[in-house]
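Hi! If you just cloned this repository, the fastest way to understand the data is to look at a raw example. We've pasted two of them here, unedited. The first protein comes first, obviously.
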Amino acid sequence: MAKGGAKNLTKSASLNAASSVFNYVVFVLVGFVTNPILLTWLGSNLFGIWKICQRLLTYVSAADGRATQALKWTIANKQSLDDVAEKQRDVGCAIVVWLRFLPLILVTGSLLTWFSPHFIKGLLPEYYTVTRLTCGILVFNLVISPLRTIPEALLIGMNLGYRCTWIHSIGAVTGGILMVTTAYLGWGLVGLATAVFVAGLIRGVVILVVAKKNLSWFKANRPEKQEVKQFLGFSIWIFSWTFINKLMISGDIIILGLVSSAQMVTFYALTSYSMQIAISLSAMLVSAAVPGLGGIVGRGDFAKATKVRAEIMTFSWLVTAMVGSLILLWNFSFVKLWVGPENFVGFAENLLLVIMTTQLIFIRNDAQIVDVSLKIKNKVLLGGVSTIIAFALAFWLGNSMVSPIFGITLGLIAGRMILTLSYPMLVRRIFQNSEERQGANMARPLLAMITMYGAAAVISSHLEIDNWWQLIGYGSASLLPIAVLAFFLGLSKSRRDLVVARINQAGLSRFPRLKPRSRSIETSFGSCKGPSVKDKI
């Protein structure tokens, strides 16, 4: 790869990551402020119903055929091509496929809206109508979503996702203000759904304007029949995977609603709030680098792709180990100060939630990496089998154990072990990497994470903070030793050198550039020959 092009990829990945993190910080702050207010004004029962409605609608969103997801990865794979007409036909393909799936969205959304009250155990009949109205508005919000998602998919595919940061940040604040206002006015769940719809509509219009400004070729051309057929085939697999992915992310709350109550869902959602932050943060960091990886895979440079994947997993492990340890240490104090100690589900459940989150992060990392190859059939089939087994185990254990949350998380972890083991092997096959050292290279980070999580879980039961200033102070003070421990305990010397080099390349620090001990760097998540720390992503 040309040196200048490598620098551009590193810069774009850094900008994408930084902008995504900034945007998510805004999103987290909005949720941090609005959730306690909504909990107070709605009550734990209605708040739990709202969370279930939101999760139910994530499944309807998958019914659009995932044309925008297919468009994103197709453009990422073709970003180095100069054929503008081909990319414009890809936009046309996305619109055609979305229109073909529109009836499915309407039918699925209508059915789920009507039956939504039956997904909540013990829901009183007087809440049936408001639950259905809430879901109906959220369905309509999904119908207009391509206004936002198609231009955004193009920006992300062209490695320009950071251009949308300020739009999403302002949209999150606007949505939060509208939700709090409607709750204050007593409009209940219907008001919350309307606020989400209005904020999404405004965000979509602005993203459309930004895409036209930054992509001179942005428009849709009539695609050829064969192109639509090929795009539709890829979209169907994306659609299948998206549904499975939604089940993995949102299935825990749905199962909990079926085996327990809306109030228990409230406790679970509030305790797992910080875990959702960890999932989203890791996904954003990986997503920032994946479009650049798509260009590498599109050129057929699998040796380079293997090295980049190893670097992605190294950074992801480092962030996940740090955030997971922090959550284990301070989540009880956080929930206690935020919404009250009665909303914390328990220390054993907290540990299982962190383990489940960590597992899901690495599954989704490799799932995203497979996407850029445009060969996702095996990924989808494996995901479907794993999800069925995980849900069956979660439902059984959730009904069998004294703590339904403990049983559900344990069942999901066990069922997803299929993907934990198979997805790395799938990536290696796609990248034509025949090295057999993956298990040995995983031993060090795995043992380091077990040590860190175990120590944090034991210490957490003896920690209880009484005010926010103490929590901020102690939490900040614990971050440095946790980071140092993860950096030196979990990463080999060559991986540490590479982390520092990448930080320097991104312009985020003035650390001295470290030289690897040899020309072969052993990765923590899969071996790869050569990358010198001077290589550019």
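Ok, and the second one:
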Amino acid sequence: MSMISITSDEFDNASAQQARSAVVLVSGAAIVLCAAALLVYGATSRAVAVPSFARQTGQPCMSCHTAFPELTPFGRRFKLGGYTLGGGKGIEDGAPPIAAMLVPTFARTRKGQDAPRTTDTHTNNNLVLQQASLFYAGKIYGNLGAFVQTTYDRASQHFMLDNTDIRYADTASFGGLDALYGVSLHNGPTVQDVWNTTPAWGYPYVSSSLAPQFSPPGAQIEGNFAAGAVGTTAYVMLNDTVYLEAGGYHPMSLALRRALGNPCANNAVRVNTQLAIDAIVNPLNNPPFYPWYGPQGLCSADSLAGFAPYWRVAIEPNWGPHSLMVGAFGFYPRVNPGSVGGFGVDSYSDLGLDAQYQYIDGPHALTLKLSRIVENQNLQSTFNQGLAVNVLGLPANLAANGGSTNLRNTLTSFRATAQYVWDHTIAGSVSYFNVHGTNDAVLYGGNSLTNSPNGKGLTFELSYMPFNKGGPSVWPWANAKIGVQYTHYLQMFGGNGNFDGMFHNASDNDTVLLYSWIAF
């Protein structure tokens, strides 16, 4: 329910000194930020990840989270209930549901990138205020509540409407069944989901927007329409155990996406020479804006070509300190790649299976998560665009997605994560990810000697949450998380060494991320 990312193979003395300096710098920044909170707000009491939820419910952070933003069973019910649970201070008490968040980060890859991601960043060793967010998070009126996040990214100098979920919820009893039901209006697939196994709120909870240089491809549900579609779903939780949800996602025009600050919408026309194609096949295309670079480079401007159905089922029994969820979900988008029309549409079928086990008792909190998404792709538009630019004698990479060799492909994304939290204060986690799919010379050949999308790796993380059991007394809802994360890439685009023929190795992308996550 809350938010919610080495310049050589061997360290020489100079680079080691540079790394030590960066650690000192970021650690100092984290200490300063936390100390500032203490100086302003006084001695300690308690905290929660989104402080406005804490004020409204009167509950400590550990009621809703293990290590935020990962939810507990109570936190999941709070979200399903429409963010309206009281017990603390509400609007009527002069406490509007407003909160803020800062996420300064430092990212270092084993080898520097070929070029800076933005005009304000470097090829390596980037210290940046990655996120500055404002929230409306809590009750609006009656059974209507909302989680609305707006975010500014200093690196790209970009302001946007981030994850948003507005919902109405109520309860009823019929035929021996107790039901918690509701409707949700949100802005991207799985933003409304209450388990941390689905993409919008899945691990890793924080990652660098500037590194690594290469990342494995993902399924459509894994962020391609984040903040880029209008979602409407209805849901019900029966007897606090069986969860059912159905609805879908509606297209959001490029003009609206730009108005809301969606950065990928700025790349509908990616290079000036593509204007020649647009003049023929898409004369109404909006003009280009300043491009935004994400973890995989220039991000996609794909748009939905109509209503995209979505469904979700899950069973979650809870007994004592134990909670077990087994579920499935499906997403079926029809897509205009690059928001270019006239070539048909790409059609996708994303089927996900997920499971989550939690043990929360006293000072111990253990969470185990599994997620597997299988995507079947019918790339009619991508394939035809590739043919069209070749017929025109233009470079194939001017097509929205560069074209494709195959009309039909598959892609499978798997992740397994284990996290342990001790005394609601110190959290450690390890996560394994694996992506594999159909070889495609045009779609992946630019990054792969074997024309493969396959990639895998491991992520390790250690974090400290000083306010989980006690925040500043004058402002007891403040929260903080200070962490270090290391991602090691075992394979990238089907290879390890020189996977793209340009002497890039998978381990070149190994990333150390230091972060401070401050909410107030």
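That's it. A detail worth noticing about the second one: The first strand starts at residue 98 and ends at 109.
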